[in-house]
Specification:
There is one protein chain. Helix content is about 85%, strand content about 0%. By secondary structure, the chain is mainly alpha-helical. Helix 1 (about 5-30) packs antiparallel against helix 2 (about 40-65). The protein starts with a helix and ends with a helix.
Protein backbone atom coordinates (compact mmCIF):
# COMPACT_ATOMS: atom_id res chain seq x y z
CA UNK A 1 0.00 0.00 0.00
CA UNK A 2 1.40 3.35 -0.93
CA UNK A 3 1.99 6.21 1.44
CA UNK A 4 -0.91 8.22 0.02
CA UNK A 5 -3.33 5.33 0.64
CA UNK A 6 -2.04 5.04 4.20
CA UNK A 7 -2.77 8.73 4.77
CA UNK A 8 -6.22 8.44 3.22
CA UNK A 9 -7.00 5.45 5.47
CA UNK A 10 -5.93 7.34 8.59
CA UNK A 11 -7.90 10.42 7.51
CA UNK A 12 -11.00 8.27 6.95
CA UNK A 13 -10.55 6.70 10.39
CA UNK A 14 -10.43 10.12 12.03
CA UNK A 15 -13.40 11.36 9.98
CA UNK A 16 -15.48 8.27 10.82
CA UNK A 17 -14.73 8.68 14.52
CA UNK A 18 -15.58 12.37 14.55
CA UNK A 19 -18.75 12.07 12.46
CA UNK A 20 -20.14 9.15 14.48
CA UNK A 21 -19.27 10.81 17.78
CA UNK A 22 -20.67 14.14 16.64
CA UNK A 23 -23.87 12.56 15.36
CA UNK A 24 -24.40 10.62 18.56
CA UNK A 25 -23.79 13.67 20.71
CA UNK A 26 -26.10 15.75 18.53
CA UNK A 27 -28.90 13.20 18.89
CA UNK A 28 -28.39 13.10 22.66
CA UNK A 29 -28.47 16.90 22.93
CA UNK A 30 -31.83 16.89 21.16
CA UNK A 31 -33.36 14.08 23.21
CA UNK A 32 -31.32 13.89 26.39
CA UNK A 33 -31.09 10.74 28.45
CA UNK A 34 -34.79 10.85 29.22
CA UNK A 35 -35.92 7.27 28.71
CA UNK A 36 -39.60 8.10 29.02
CA UNK A 37 -40.80 9.65 25.79
CA UNK A 38 -38.06 9.15 23.21
CA UNK A 39 -36.16 6.02 24.20
CA UNK A 40 -35.45 5.04 20.58
CA UNK A 41 -33.68 8.34 19.84
CA UNK A 42 -31.68 8.05 23.05
CA UNK A 43 -30.66 4.53 22.04
CA UNK A 44 -29.62 5.72 18.60
CA UNK A 45 -27.48 8.46 20.13
CA UNK A 46 -25.75 5.99 22.42
CA UNK A 47 -25.34 3.57 19.52
CA UNK A 48 -23.55 6.14 17.38
CA UNK A 49 -21.25 7.10 20.25
CA UNK A 50 -20.36 3.44 20.77
CA UNK A 51 -19.93 2.97 17.04
CA UNK A 52 -17.46 5.86 16.96
CA UNK A 53 -15.23 4.13 19.49
CA UNK A 54 -15.27 0.90 17.45
CA UNK A 55 -15.22 1.94 13.79
CA UNK A 56 -12.63 4.72 14.09
CA UNK A 57 -9.96 2.63 15.83
CA UNK A 58 -10.63 -0.39 13.59
CA UNK A 59 -10.08 1.72 10.46
CA UNK A 60 -6.96 3.22 12.03
CA UNK A 61 -5.50 -0.20 12.86
CA UNK A 62 -6.34 -1.54 9.40
CA UNK A 63 -4.80 1.45 7.64
CA UNK A 64 -1.63 1.24 9.70
CA UNK A 65 -1.33 -2.55 9.38
CA UNK A 66 -1.80 -2.74 5.61
CA UNK A 67 0.66 0.06 4.93
Amino acid sequence: MSDIMKRIGVACAIAAFLFCLGGGLWILTKTGLNHGEDAVATGLGLYFIGKAFFVGPMLWITARKLA
